[in-house]
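PT: before anyone asks, these are the final sequences, not the draft ones from last week. 232 residues across everything. Please model them as a single complex and drop the result in this thread when it's through.
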Amino acid sequence: GAVVSQHPSRVICKSGTSVKIECRSLDFQATTMFWYRQFPKKSLMLMATSNEGSKATYEQGVEKDKFLINHASLTLSTLTVTSAHPEDSSFYICSARVAGNQETQYFGPGTRLLVL
Amino acid sequence: AQSVAQPEDQVNVAEGNPLTVKCTYSVSGNPYLFWYVQYPNRGLQFLLKYITGDNLVKGSYGFEAEFNKSQTSFHLKKPSALVSDSALYFCAVRDAGYNQGGKLIFGQGTELSVKP
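LR: through. Structure below.
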């Protein structure tokens, strides 16, 4: 149980285009999902907290107009990187917390984004 | 403010020997502590957590961690290391403030290398 999927697993796009990444909780409902960014061999940087049915809460320094987050259902959150640039290339990981359980987060397998 | 420190960037162990990956924390109030493991180009896998109860917590794949309140530590241990344990390990603490949405604060990560 508690499986989280991400799609796509990797994506290559041209500079200036937008890319959407999906995060799904497959066997549980998640009122809260989190989006992280990870640089090679580095820790995870929390970008935003996504709450179902409401606006995402962004961490300081994260541009909300560049990283659009939508949490339209209890099993799906999306991250759209708008007008991507090479510096946006990174490993993006989502996590989901079981509804009613404030404790454990379960992580997706990650999405590797390369912007050319 | 809550924080987590992993003092070792890398730990090297021979297969069959015991391993320890260190973690210290700083929190206000009771800590919620977690260990996650990350294999190359993958998301994080949950290993174990401490919320309350016994100081020795047993988790997945034969790992355990000992909560030590006086030393504010939560070291990850395994009696006999396997080559397949080689990965990146993260310690995390849950932000205790309820209005923080239960977000996790991660340590810097420790790369474990187990040699045959």
